[in-house]
Amino acid sequence: MTMSNTTLIESAPLSRRIHVLQIVGNSIVGGMESYVLRLVQHLPQERFQTTVLCPWESRYTERLRAAGADVLIAQMPDNDPAWGSISLAASLVKARGVDVIQCHLGNAHILAGLVSRLTGVPAVFTAHGLWIDSIDIEVHRLAGTHIAAVCQATYYHALNLGVKPDSVHLIPNGVDTDVFTPRREREGAMRRHLGLSPQTPLVGFIGRLSPEKGPETFLRSMMMLHQSLPEAHAVIAGDGPMRVQVGQFIERYRMEDYAHLAGVYEDIPGLLGELDLVVSASHSEGLPLALMEAMAAGVPVVATRVGGIPDLVQHEMSGLLCRDNDIEGIAAAARRLLLEPETARRFGDAARERALKHFPLSASVQSTGELLARLAWQRSSTRETPVQEPAANEAIATALMGKVSARSAVRSAKPVG
User: What is the pTM of this model?
Assistant: First the structure.
């Protein structure tokens, strides 16, 4: 349900702005990070104040500050959270009067759960991927965190794992359809940089360069596309742990003439205007923002049928869906859309209409704000009666730390390779 900003403000009967602490487990410019940035930008500032905890300084933290957030840095390793970070976050919550915590990625969830138990401030974990990790379930059970799912598959996965219905919330991602609009820039900055003519077919991969996103699957499909359509070029825009590996793959298979690694690209709306097609080769997804942005921009898409992607893309209506890791299928679908411009245009128009109707950013921000406001109000209404005594909170935090340490020990003991 979509609510107006006025309704949202009235639904949170606090006499001051709601102070939200966002704990973000990464500091790159990616989909999850963009989600948090857009919350900072679009939650009503007269009603919400935002502080963000990030693991390191980066261009992303600069963007958060420019949007009006107060940003602090704290270590967030994937295994045992640093006690210094726990102390910093707990002290911050108490000193600054934080009303509610929202966290993103497993390392941030562990930190948020511990801080929630130590301070009594409610926390909600937004699950951006398809699957909810076992440690996230442990944090939820021991620390009482809420879980927000961005797609139906993740929502029902949480229920299947035993999360109570009143503790899991389905809030689909949204896209800013005023920023991501259809436009054709056949002679844009990317084409000029690559020395491509306006007639050159250009296929894009936009996203984090990590195993679950399938950048190698994309490149293999582009190798196959090149065999039947040698004039087509591919561009990869993004960064991540597989950046070096992706570059090496391009070199090893001598793809340099038609496959281009662009790194982090600042003007994604402009890049989308230059692309003839966007491919999502992910092996696992929640509700990917990069795909939503392409659809809002009216760019035809080819995507794997995983996670929440079928919630977005209607096969043969607003795009084409392929099986996971179907290199031949992805190549064939891309070739079809490049050779059938009328079909591609029809799919792009339908994708734009679907984004406008079903996935506007305003609805996602509104629902998230409503949840944060409700948790903050519930906490303020019961502030006089803490759920647990401090000693009990510390005992639960210690138990949670023990489970995290045990999981880390098991991972360390696994053979490599």
Answer: 0.86
